[in-house]
Fold:
Amino acid sequence: MNAPTLPVAQAKYLLPASLREAADMAAQHPGSFRYVAGGTDVLVNRFQGNEASTCLIDLGRIPALKGIARVDGHLRIGSLETLDRLMKHPLVLADAPMLAEAARSVGAPLLRRTATIGGNVLCENRCLYYNQSEWWRESVGYCLKCNGDICIATGGRNACFSELVSDTAPALIALDAEIEYTDGQAVTRTPLERIYTGDGVAPRNLPPAAIVTALWLPLGRGFTWAFRKLRERQSLEFTSLTTAMTLDSGGRIKIAMAGVDPRPVVVEAAATDDPEALVRKAIKGARAIDNDMFTRLYRREMIGVYLRDSFNTVTAARM
Structure:
């Protein structure tokens, strides 16, 4: 028996030509709009019934959101730059090759030609019990993330553990990236990891009308790096565990992980620190539960496998 086909929610579609115009449109639809860039996350969630905004504001024609350039000792990447462009751009390959590798790990070629870096760092948290059709979720029972009263994965009523699944976010965080956003007037820059709340229902703390304009990566830090991703297939699949590790010229190690917690798991250490202590700290910080195709136990074991291998990679590259 086939599952019933449910209609996709209709929405007003707006196409601003400037940041000011986009902000004005958002102000005219408070609480009922959603920004769209590549649409590879938002539109899929709409078809599943997990996104029902009545107004979609497409940012794709705003020139200020594009461009990759070296500016004031940083690599500035416009939020509308596609993942395909990032993985091929000469400045990204020269200054932040781990970001190019992270972009290459996302989805399949067609998706990477559409998906944007801004959209990827803001992609909605995922869970095996949430990212299903409306018909499936109704039959099982709605969870905390879709206005239910229980986390189906844990049986708890207080917290949602849907997972951050961005692959570029861990790479950017390990590279000490900042995110730039605006409400149409003021412009704010802050370390990328600070926008993630750890709450699976409301995973980011950006202002409601904020438009992400760019990512800023520091230059001249002499990073060596290692990037690892666990998924069932080499394309299409969202991550079950992503680890990104950097070692800078000052001997500072920074680790960022996704796929095992509602927010990035971030660990900082020195190259002289005990690698096993570093692994234990990372595993302790990961609140992975059984809401993925791989079990919680397996993913936690793989944290150790990936981080030990990454530690050897970044330290060997320094020698």
Notes: The chain has a mean pLDDT of 94. Residues 296-318 form the longest helix (23 residues). The first strand starts at residue 12 and ends at 14. The domain at 65-122+162-318 is CATH 3.30.465.10 (Uridine Diphospho-n-acetylenolpyruvylglucosamine Reductase; domain 3).
